[in-house]
From TrEMBL:
Residues 77-218 form the Glyceraldehyde 3-phosphate dehydrogenase NAD(P) binding domain. Pathway: Carbohydrate degradation; glycolysis; pyruvate from D-glyceraldehyde 3-phosphate: step 1/5. The active site is at 218 (nucleophile). This is Glyceraldehyde-3-phosphate dehydrogenase. Keywords: Cytoplasm, Glycolysis, NAD, Nucleotide-binding, Oxidoreductase. It comes from Castor canadensis. The gene is Gapdhs. Residues 21-63 are annotated as: Disordered. GO terms for molecular function: glyceraldehyde-3-phosphate dehydrogenase (NAD+) (phosphorylating) activity; NAD binding; NADP binding. It is an enzyme of class 1 (oxidoreductase). It holds the Pfam family Gp_dh_N. Its main location: cytoplasm.
Amino acid sequence: MSKRDIVLTNVTVVQLLRQPCPVVRPPPSPEPKAEEPQPQAEPVKEEVKVQPQLSPPPQPKKITPVRELTWASMGEFGRIGRLVLRACMEKGVKVVAVNDPFIDPEYMVYMFKYDSTHGRYKGSVEHKNGRLVVDSHEIMVYQCKDPKEIPWKDVGCPYVVEATGVYLSLAATSAHISSGAQRVVICAPSPDAPMFVMGVNENDYNPDSMNIVSNASCTTNCLAPLAKVIHERFGIVEGLMTTVHSYTATQKTVDGPSKKAWRDGRGAHQNIIPASTGAASAVGKVIPELKGKLTGMAFRVPTPDVSVVDLTCRLAQAAPYSAIKEAIKAAAKGPMAGILAYTEDQVVSTDFISDTHSSIFDAKAGIALSDNFVKLIAWYDNEYGYSHRVVDLLRYMFSRNK
């Protein structure tokens, strides 16, 4: 096994490949086009001349040698863990190990194959000899309750995705390092680990001193790119954020006790529930200039996926709403392509299920009270988009660690 390996806690292990997919697909349609026009009237000589010009099909043969970029392992095969594995397969990252003490390989196959929100997995998945096999790639399965017991060293996987939602601090997550991992990405905000949001501050990553990092929250991943564009272009004096957030697994299906706020224990499918969130203040960790200038709250609503951020802020530099739209559109097409998106369509939440962007600015939904006071709206798939950023952060770390 290669030395460049990654481990995902309670999730799966993935390997980054230069080629996005190991599946070989047939070349496009040059041959059928050449056969259709030439069979009846046109001379054969013209056919022979056209074929050499349309001969770039040999390129896939040159690309076929696959080079390993990263191997990853995951902890817990939960909601985010399974979607991180899907994102890994889409991006050519090979997962080599998964740890979940509560799910056996047979049940993992079922849970990965079928998803009520994102649909059935389009590839193949099965279990064989106690291992999970996805698209012919074998994935080791461990069922350790303590991260210190997971034999990451035996797998030879330096990268681990910590997706349990339990081990968040540097001290707690260092258990993965003790058991053989070299780098850990936490799929949640951390009280003390360096926090990164792709498209915003990943250049601050220091491979020499940062072996455990946080991918922040899904809401911070939506808000930070938007705030970065607005602040760098117009300046944000202060702002309030509200996220209208889909319910998650931490909520109750029916009324029950809550260890935090009492109303957090009310039925998620029946209520709009005000909740606290540190997503806005966390922007100050990835954009230091905005520290203390943003705060926010959340409404948990009865939808299974896709959330929306409302950023209401005061601008230092007066600008009409049209200028704000143009600035965001330019960023979405340029430096933040793939992270930030722009739309003027009459969209609703379900239109963004399985969208891989961190933030999709809704130009039609935003409003301005004046040229200095605006409300900006951005959608995000709080599951799928976030899972793709986890994989992007892994790949970025690997590129810097070489």
